[in-house]
UniProtKB/TrEMBL annotation:
Keywords: Membrane, Transmembrane, Transmembrane helix. Pfam families: AzlD. The keyword Membrane applies. It comes from Pseudoflavonifractor intestinihominis. It comes from the Bacteria. This is AzlD domain-containing protein. The chain crosses the membrane at residues 39-59, 71-89, 95-112.
Length: 113
């Protein structure tokens, strides 16, 4: 298979999968009724679960960080505290995640160089 044909097929498959993921909810659930209880349950429990997973992922390297090198652990701790404070203040998941991420990146790339 030539590289051009391979690229065209890959793009076509990606386009079909993207379209299906966008159209599938409208095909599965009618527009007039209430969403199924499973969908409501997932909408309620997934955001906190995702945030918890992100916290574990972000802090996984702290166990090997030395207490004598604050650049190795202080940015993470400050960013996690900012996420907690932002969420307690505004109760907005996106604001908490983006605010903590931006603060962490500024701390790592500007403050703790």
């Amino acid at each position: 298979m030539t590289p051009v044909i391979h690229a065209v097929l890959a793009i076509a498959v990606m386009a079909v999968v993207t379209f299906l993921t966008r159209a599938l909810p409208f095909l599965l659930f009618d527009r007039g009724g209430n969403p199924p209880k499973l969908v409501l349950y997932l909408g309620r429990v997934l955001p906190p679960a995702i945030i918890a997973m992100l916290i574990v992922y972000c802090l996984r390297g702290l166990r090997s960080a030395s207490l004598f090198t604050p650049a190795g652990w202080l940015p993470q701790v400050i960013a996690v505290a900012a996420v907690i404070l932002l969420h307690l203040w505004k109760h907005n998941n996106l604001l908490s995640i983006f605010g903590g991420t931006i603060l962490y990146m500024v701390l790592v790339q500007v403050v703790f160089v």
